[in-house]
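Troubleshooting: if your tokenizer reports a length mismatch, compare your output against this known-good record of 380 residues.
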Amino acid sequence: MAYARLGTKYSASDNPLLSAESVRRAYELRSRVSERERLYIEAHYFRDVTGELDKAASVWEVMQQTYPREGEPYSNLSSFYRENSNYERALQEAHEAHRLYPNNQDGYVALGQLYLYLNRLHDAEAVFREAEERKLESELLLWNRYQLAFLKGDEVEMERLVTNSAGKEGADKLRIWQGHVEAYHGRLRKARELIQPATRDCGRPCAQLSLVEAYYGARHQAQLDANAAMKMNMKGNNFPELVLALALAGDAAKAKKLSVELDKNFPLHTRVQRYWLPTILAAVALDRNNAPEAIELLHVVGPNEIGNLQVFSIYERGRAYLMLNNGGAAAVEFQKILDHPGIVGLKAIGALAHLQLGRAYAMQGDTAKSRAAYQDFLTL
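Known-good structure output:
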């Protein structure tokens, strides 16, 4: 169990290699533990090592039936349903976990985040207010409060959170989130100033920054930041964001090489196989002006693409339809992004979707809608 718990901590600190190593060791020793501990270890092995989310969910279901008064299986099943875009079922599981553990700050995070995903901002605000009244603090609570203020356009509250977070848990990452807000509004230079000095290394933050730069067309800088991320503690294939950034930034050869490594290292991983790899390879295809291939590659993503963090595939499909001069189909894709602001959050494609929607309407000859979409983009 010590190995398993360490694996969870490493995962939370963005160190997937050490996480997988620890959980794998726990899995090897699982015959020496209690039934409840064995279930915990197996669920985390399938989730954090092999990435087989369906198998992890099956174990959590057994744990839920065997130990119905424990909140952990409910919270983990909530995460599973969230990633599969079943937000109402995820909300049910999160409510049950919160009922069982009413003072657990993670329960407030899960509930509030799901309300954000469902665009129920008032409900999310009530959840976070209750957590604040209970004096609960965590990095994830701070992040979700900040994202709620962003979605509401409440700059005063965003500034209050920055001021009040000084010296508290999560304050270090708040600078990175501020950088993504700057990037969302197109201020890349300011975004770099905020994101890069905020971390001792530039692993995942640089990978995410490179992806923003690639989408904005700053291809050379995107390649530099992606390569910088690769030189840090972890191999590049543990940062799928940087592989996608390389594909978008024109380094298709390196993106394809890293994709092969992703496929080899994570052959059963749900997110890698059903989301990241198809999206990366679709971006490579679009770099070669092969839109039909990109659309075909993205078919596998379809059922779950509005899931947690899984919106880049929608954007790539929209770009493919634009390349095919199919403005109607492209507009449908970019509208999906605009219809889910709570899922998109601070991602720059949330702003860029307005621009692409304008292009899609122009392609259809709808001048009024095109002009409105461009104006929304320019306002942002």
